[in-house]
Amino acid sequence: MTAPSTNIPVPAADFRPSLYKTDSRTKRRNAAETRFRAYGIAAVAFGVLALVVLLTSVLSQGLSAFRQTTMVMQVELDPAVLDKTGNRDPAELGKVTTITYGRLLDDALNKELAGKGLIPEGMSARDVSAMISKEAPAQLRKIVLADPSKIGSTISFDAWTGGRIDGFFKGRVTMESAQLDSNVTPEQLQLAQAMRDAGLITMPFNWAFITGPDASEVRPEAAGLGVAILGSAYMMLIVLALALPIGVAASIYLEEFASKNWFTDLIEVNIANLAAVPSIVFGILGLAVFINFAGMPQSSPLVGGLVLTLMTLPTIIISTRAALKAVPPSIKDAALGVGASKTQTIFHHVLPLAMPGILTGTIIGLAQALGETAPLLLIGMVAFVRDYPGAPPEGFLDPASALPVQVYNFTQRADPAFVERASGAIIVLLVFLLAMNILAVILRRKFERRW
Amino acid sequence: MSIGLLSLIVIVLAVAGYFAGRRLAVSKVAGDIRKLHSLPSYYGQTVFLFTAVPALLFLAAWLLIQPLLIESRVSAMLNVADVPDGSSVSLMMTDVRRIANGIDLMLAKGGLNSADIAAMRTDLTDVRGRLAEVGVALGTNVTPAVFAAGKAYHDLSGTSRMMMTVGVLALALAGFVYAISRIQPEFRARNVTEAFVKVLLIGASCIAILTTVGIVLSLVFETISFFRIYPAKDFFLSLTWNPKFGGGSDLGIWPLIWGTLYISFIALLVSVPVGIFAAIFLAEYASKKVRAVAKPLIEILAGIPTIVYGLFALITVGPMLRDYFAQPMGFGSSSSSVMTAGVVMGLMLIPFVSSLSDDIINAVPQSLRDGSYGLGATQSETIKQVILPAALPGIVGAVLLAASRAIGETMIVVMGAGAAAKMSLNPFEAMTTVTVKIVSQLTGDTEFASPETLVAFALGLTLFVFTLGLNILALVIVRKYREQYE
């Protein structure tokens, strides 16, 4: 620094009289800085806002699925109607159809209405009985067949209301929409409101939504997630039982044994590539290989589990390798130093220390698999399944549904009440995912070691 | 014997083998285990591995191959002349399988024995009614040829089951005896076990290769059989997509590719600016506290299943775009549209772009920033003129990966984009994509061997090649242009 700074010529136009006075160029640059920063804040805010809107939209639509409009009524199980011969023979009781039980429910409802002094004005008897869900007689029948000794007594029975009445109390159906709707009349809604005020209609927590099976197009109030949850649970079991050992074995080989050669490269490229293959392609694989080639049954949890296993493997392998890599070499050196073989070193020392990381990765892989829909559509899991799959291992071959596929199924139906069911199913799915992710975080917090 | 029971027997035998082998080794040296080459448990382990692994692998392989063999034997029994009009061999095979299954059920529930079945003839007994009684519904009456094939199918699968059981048990026993016979004090049991385990580890690694091979083979073979019944020229050059039930469909891929690219373009239009700006803010401006909250929140978006986004598109975004944009501006009245699917997919892709870009921006060394600040640049000037150029290859890679996700995404477009195959510029019109058509062609009720179903495999292959190409391109760009900082 020989030349004194005063010798540098200053262009007249950019001459700054004082540091304290900002010139136009500085202002411009500062404004650009502020703007740029604001874009960043806006982008982050947009992302967070998207998350909030997404979750509130689903929650606001779906929370009502967990409450079910129910009529509490005393049903007299008249032996003269249900068991004409009087010998309580199960075979004969089984011949009594739901139509008969429907009549019992109608009588009970009318009695309850009369008891509260509610007169169904301008309504035919048919309109009154149409307020009860078509599923209710079947449920009553099931109760009676399960315990024939109840015949002759009067039992307290919670009958679901029809989907439209249910929708009325959830704000989905209004008096105006009822006028245009062939499935419900405004009179029915008025009567329902009166029953609600009189305490005949309540809205308890809807366990049947979580445990019950799916129901047909015309009975949205009875549609449940039981089969889907069971199917998803079976598939997760299969994924866990296959993907965890295979993934860990592959990672151990690649991380600890494999020498650098073309074969190892081939495996690495394949794993990286599989992680990026669109999920629907795995569905095509499942359809072509497991169902068409190997002849496994369609829509079975076994095929779904196998497909999801192949999809989850790359995730598990990548996280397991990271966990194995994180174990410091000093531990390996120490084990080898006291005479352990390479296999002993890995299985006795490295693997146990890497276990928390492996489990965390596995849970995250499982969570991914739980939410996957597209490949399951192709292997026939969209089919309408009402029967619970049997106990494993035979149950793995029974047709079942899966939670995300059930959501898709609900959205394909015409009745708007199924939108509520679909959103409710999403809430159940998200609760499972949240639980799994929290478990992963806890595992990591609790067992993760910094070397 | 059921497969569960069979594998249980094998495992019990193997566990027994472990203890037997261990004991035998110890007894051979009269309890002085210093005289053994390996620890006693390794002798047990060799027996366990040799008993269980070959037998179970054989079981799995048999289960995979058995249906194929039986199928080819039985379908050879069906004459082409027997096939009625409007049907095909593959449809008849479905009936044959149902009949075989029905025979099983008749034996189990219907109170018949195998002699009854063998004597049963279609012209004397109402076979269809009988099958319906045990819960097997058939579409048509059973012809003698089909029923004979069904019986053969049933018998063959019975024999095959039998052979499988015998084979598995024989293999398990042979392994058991072989491993036991090798036990001597100087037998290098640990080395044998470790070599065996290493082979198993290699086998597990090869599953990745097998999966890729399976994907490619299944796509390629079905695509070839598709092009045999449908001209490849029409598939690649035709501009109409119009599958028909009765045949004579137009299956041109271009409307689907157009929809796919249009939707992906809109998705990237949303996710790239938002993702990159979010990454810049989080990496360069945000305080530690803000970063610790905002980054995981944005990444939650990546953990939400796509079916949730699909529902969001269907019930919230679609109707909103229709009511506030499309209808007032006269663009149409469809709630499922390119815009709906594109915007929602854009939301899903934000974390892909932002996390990857964030990592890359963080990898740019501090010295570059310091140099730029030293020259008097503001923070935003530094980012625009120093950091982004340095991070550009990585960011391009991230965008390409996001694009490959967008092209392969299924549920959002199935629920948000509609099913009409159109080539239009109006973003508020319903269009469709390759993935939507794969789902609709493969979940329909059409017969498997028809071009309307097989086209899904050609579409799948196109999709696979497309996404693979994008992924490789992304990797190449990242590798080639990555600055190496010391």
TrEMBL record, chain A:
Q: Which residue numbers delimit the ABC transmembrane type-1 domain?
A: 229-440
The record describes its membrane topology as: Multi-pass membrane protein
The cellular location(s) given in this protein's UniProt record come to: Cell inner membrane; Cell membrane
Which keywords, in A-to-Z order, does the entry hold? Cell membrane, Membrane, Transmembrane, Transmembrane helix, Transport
On whether Transmembrane is a keyword of this UniProt record, the answer is: yes
PROSITE patterns assigned to the protein according to its UniProt record, in alphabetical order: ABC_TM1
Q: Name one GO molecular function term.
A: phosphate transmembrane transporter activity
Matching entries from CDD domains are given as: TM_PBP2 (cd06261)
Membrane spanning stretches: 38-59, 233-254, 274-295, 302-324, 422-443
Q: Which GO terms describe its cellular component?
A: plasma membrane
Q: Which GO terms describe its biological process?
A: phosphate ion transmembrane transport
Entries under InterPro entries matching the protein: DUF3333, MetI-like, MetI-like_sf, Phosphate_PstA
Which SUPFAM superfamilies does its entry note? MetI-like
Q: Name one Pfam family in it.
A: BPD_transp_1
The family note in this entry says:
Belongs to the binding-protein-dependent transport system permease family. CysTW subfamily.
Q: Which PANTHER family match?
A: PHOSPHATE TRANSPORT SYSTEM PERMEASE PROTEIN PSTA-RELATED (PTHR43470)
Record-given protein name: Phosphate transport system permease protein PstA
Q: What is the scientific name of the source organism? A: Paenirhodobacter populi
Primary gene name: pstA
TrEMBL record, chain B:
Q: Where in the cell is it found?
A: Cell inner membrane; Cell membrane
Name of the protein: Phosphate transport system permease protein
Q: What is its main location?
A: membrane
Q: Does the keyword Iron-sulfur apply?
A: no
Q: Which GO terms describe its biological process?
A: phosphate ion transport
What family is reported? Belongs to the binding-protein-dependent transport system permease family. CysTW subfamily.
Q: Which organism is it from?
A: Paenirhodobacter populi
The top of its lineage is: Bacteria, Pseudomonadati, Pseudomonadota, Alphaproteobacteria, Rhodobacterales
Q: Read off the PANTHER family from this record.
A: PHOSPHATE TRANSPORT SYSTEM PERMEASE, PHOSPHATE TRANSPORT SYSTEM PERMEASE PROTEIN
